[in-house]
Amino acid sequence: SFFGNFYIVNQDDILTVSVPYMTVEQSFYYVEAPNYDAKILRLPYKGGRYSMLVILPNSKGGLPTLLKRINLYSLKALLYLMDKSTVKVTLPKFKFDYQKRMGGALKKFGLHQMFQNTASFPGIARGNNTLLRKLVVSDVIQKSGIELDETGTVAYAATGK
């Protein structure tokens, strides 16, 4: 681990912050994308079934242009061009968490009863106990995140309340 500069594009400015980085040299799927002035790297998750794509603009302020140019179809075409090769990868360590209250969205999709006093959960609450028969969902919270450090990449998602 070492500290290095990380560049954040903010409107017309490029902010520089010092963040912890890590470096590894090993075999990854990788492609240079000159039409997008970028590089694309595939980092596999443990087990190899899923992976994270890292798309890095070649220039410090290149992210807005890259985002305007690239789309799902061009990205898919670039993925077919990826070759496995030994590359030296230097990435910032990071952790990202996201939480979203889903109750309102679920109600918009027609799932009303579980939020009402008339809700019925026979698979969860059985018997004549009055408390068990008054189960109601107050909200549903979706939490997801991703963490990247020397031990690898961890992605997670959970729903509950």
From TrEMBL:
Keywords attached to this entry: Glycoprotein, Protease inhibitor, Secreted, Serine protease inhibitor, Signal
Cellular localisation: Secreted
InterPro entries for the chain: Serpin_dom (IPR023796), Serpin_fam (IPR000215), Serpin_sf (IPR036186), Serpin_sf_2 (IPR042185)
Recorded superkingdom: Eukaryota
Domain Serpin, residue spans: 15-159
Transport as UniProt keyword: no
Family of the protein in this entry: Belongs to the serpin family.
UniProt name for this protein: Serpin domain-containing protein
Lineage: Eukaryota, Metazoa, Ecdysozoa, Arthropoda, Hexapoda
